[in-house]
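Sequence in, structure out. First:
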Amino acid sequence: MADNRCAVLAAPVAAERSHGERLQRRRRLFQAAFFILFLSAPALDLLRFDLTEAQLWFLGQRWSLGIAAFQRGEATATETAIAIFVRGFIPGVLFVVAFMTVAWRYGRLYCGWLCPHFSSVEMLNDVLHRACGKLSLWDKATTPRAGREPKRRWWPLFALSCALLGFAWGITLLTYLLPPATVWGNLVHGTLTPNQARFIAIASTVFALEFAFARHLFCRFGCAVGLFQSLAWMANPRGMVMAFDRGRARDCRSCATADAPQGSACDAACPMRLRPRNVKRLMFSCVQCGRCGSECETSQGAQARAPLLQWTVGADALRETLKQRRQEQQEGR
């Protein structure tokens, strides 16, 4: 009878574990697809602004505000003003409102699931950890993960990865401003203009240094897209949060996984180096990647227990926020 009961308990737990793993695989696929889109969008004319023609390209079409027609005398001032409002102002406002509405409810979902910079951050975190056992060059202590022993042979790969990612970002940004065929043709044939060569060199160097030394700092405070998402999310008490079951806090003592054999699996998993069990105001730069929840499922599932960390949104998130405030007030007394 006892064996049967254990089997019944283990079945849903195994499903929870597999759900967390599927969630992370799905997130990786989204990140990879968006990274490819980021690199190829200029070449496909999906989105770029051509400085040589002063022309915006969007979804393979020239996107004009009618200013050129006005300069040629083919449109009146009123027609041009209406075109600017309809084709420029309204789409811009709608995009910003839609983007910030998602951030208001779900937080920095774009950062954790799509942003090409953050996917680069996660990859570099893993390579650096293999080299020195840390997720940042500025960490004072190592982060145990999957029984890894730091090996110096990973240092050249980390430096090379930073350099290659910096170059990829530098040249991709240039193709958003100049015809991609021209840029890549000049690069392949060694005929870059002085300005093109200067832009690629400076941008590649800045991004390579940022990836090596300040990638987490940039994500937290240097990225305007991430910052405004965080501000919108923090202003909404019903926004999606990773709720922590504080009534079972003792279960965290036995929390360990293959990636975090010494415990605190959710802390070790967080690519932003946050503590997921903290209150919302201390999770300002959370990117909603869900890795902490997946690790918690794995750890607690191995002991036939429900996870302590779960995403909540709406009324459940509001109750979690109020609960956190009451706890802070009690601890402050």
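Second:
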Amino acid sequence: MVIGVPRESFPGERRVALVPAVIPNLAKAGFEVVIEAGAGSAAGYLDADYSARGARLIPERSEVFRLADVVVQLLCYGSNDQTGKADLPMLRPGQILVGFLRALGSLETIQELSATGVTAFSVELMPRITRAQSMDVLSSMATICGYKAALLAADRLPKLFPMLTTAAGTITPARVFVIGAGVAGLQAIATARRLGAVASAYDLRSASKEQVLSVGGRFIELPILAADAEDARGYAKAQDDTFC
């Protein structure tokens, strides 16, 4: 079975669906990997890295789709992605497409994919349960977002995050306030703390207090929002205007 990795076409997308390190494991399982030349360059992975790990480089995008039994992409075709629409004619019945399909965002997208005969798996719909943790793409991406958010905040803030003591005096640490203590929020708190800031956070869910404290943050409690807003799955419930 052949796994095909085309270059990402969605505007601004720099990630790549497969990194070179996983290719030997796929080969051991009996898969062949073909990848469009330059697919990983924006993510820092050179064509030579893929070749060295056993992938076959293909210069033509259409050839990747022709050869592949399974096409893996990060941001697959979407109704608002005019560039991605060019991939539709290259999909064929019996082929498997795996990636972020944003299936709940556009019925048109699903209908057009269905018309090609392809079998599509939307990775963001993977159940977020213990058995599927290794495939939980939402948590992994949220972790990166929280980390990057803290770095961007440190770059934009016109002072340093950590406390510094110099011969000329002492600089007090920056105070960081994170709104929302989910996966991304907790990573942002932990990163801000590692950079030396004093981190506080707030979340609608009462259970998040313990999580915020566990990463070294201070939980801000608002009595006006005393009602628990967590559903049975552990996610925050949608709130209406009367709640605030």
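Remark: The CA atoms of residues 91 and 116 lie 6 Å apart.
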